[in-house]
Amino acid sequence: MKVTVKLHGTLGERLTADQRSSGIELEVVEGATAGDLLGLLGVSEPRQGVVVVDGRVLGPEDEIRRGAVVNVFQAISGG
């Protein structure tokens, strides 16, 4: 199934300017989860990403629906 992915923060540096604004279309298996998508994007533990669809933060086991526009944000921490 196809989903559109928009990468934000330093994750977006992997893309061209056009790709950052419009997103990239990826083919994922039916039933793919947010964790699956992060793995496909090569987002590893030290640079963990936050996956958001329709304003909702997804957990690693949450499924992504067909045709979704998925925003992946660089996880930040601090205090």
Write out key terms for the chains shown.
single chain; 79 residues; alpha+beta; five-stranded mixed beta sheet; 2 helices
Into which percent range does the helicity of residues fall? 10-25%
According to DSSP, the number of beta strands is 5
Strand percentage: 25-35%
Q: Helix count, per DSSP?
A: 2
**Strand adjacency order, main sheet:** 2-1-5-3-4
Mean pLDDT figure: 90
CA(first)-CA(last) distance? 39 Å
The gyration radius over C-alpha positions equals 12 Å
Shape: globular
Please write the string of helix (H) and strand (E) elements: EHEHEEE
Q: Biggest β-sheet: count, sense, barrel?
A: 5 strands, mixed
- List the uncertain runs: none
Structural class: alpha+beta
Write the layout of secondary structure elements.
Blueprint: E1 2-7, H1 17-22, E2 24-27, H2 34-41, E3 49-53, E4 56-58, E5 69-74
Parallel strand pairs: 1-5
Antiparallel strand pairs: 1-2, 3-4, 3-5
Structural features, described:
- This protein is of the alpha+beta class and 79 residues long.
- It is built from two helices and five strands, in the order βαβαβββ.
- A hairpin with a 2-residue loop joins strand 3 (49-53) and strand 4 (56-58).
- The protein is globular.
Structure summarized in a few sentences:
By secondary structure, the protein is of the alpha+beta class. It has two helices and five strands, in the order βαβαβββ.
